[in-house]
Write a structure and sequence with these properties.
88% of the residues lie in helices and 0% in strands. It has helices at 4-20, 25-61, 66-101, 107-130, 132-139, 143-177, 179-185.
Length: 187
């Protein structure tokens, strides 16, 4: 019995040591899959919302009567609803990437997931700013007032989009510098 005790203690120690190095990559990747599905939905809604914005802008340019204004405002409402779906999906995606980063992972993979989470949250913020354009049409009474608000929206959206693009570049750089890790992590 005395000889078995040191062996048992050693085996427990080895198991604990080995157990400490196991990563939860599979769990994280399942959450990342949900995030990627949300990104796909967000991108589709952003594309559709952008097309609706173009139609709305064309309608605004040709406003001559009150009924033209009401038609443009109806398009604005449709664009807002679609863009809100995109915003919500980007936000969901960002939350999922952050959730995935909380698992026990290799440091660079964790850093990548955190960058992707921040990027998606910034993309949600970008879409929220873009929603300001159709909202401006609903909230203003004159074409000049609308154009002034749109100019402000465009300026803000450009800055937020640049921030999102910078975060995307950061994540891509982490991925490029750690190709072996990402080939392993995504299998």
């Amino acid at each position: 019995m005395k000889r078995k005790l040191p062996f048992l203690v050693t085996m427990i120690g080895v198991c604990l040591l080995v157990g400490c190095t196991f990563y939860e990559t599979d769990k994280a990747n399942k959450v990342v899959d949900v995030a990627n599905a949300a990104i796909k939905d967000a991108n589709e809604n952003l594309t559709k919302g952008g097309q609706l914005l173009v139609k709305m802008e064309q309608a605004v340019a040709s406003i001559e009567e009150d009924q033209d204004l009401e038609a443009a405002r109806a398009q604005a409402k449709e664009a807002i609803a679609t863009l809100e779906k995109a915003r919500d999906k980007y936000k969901e995606s960002g939350e999922k990437f952050i959730e995935a980063s909380k698992f026990k992972l290799q440091d660079k993979y964790k850093e990548y997931l955190e960058a992707k989470g921040a990027e998606m949250k910034k993309r949600a913020e970008y879409v929220d700013v873009v929603i300001g354009e159709p909202k401006a049409l609903l909230d203003t009474e004159s074409k000049a007032d609308y154009q002034a608000k749109v100019k402000d929206v465009v300026s803000k959206s450009d800055a937020v989009k640049k921030d999102a693009d910078d975060l995307e570049a950061k994540a891509k750089k982490i991925q490029d510098e750690n190709k072996d890790l990402f080939a392993k992590e995504t299998k």
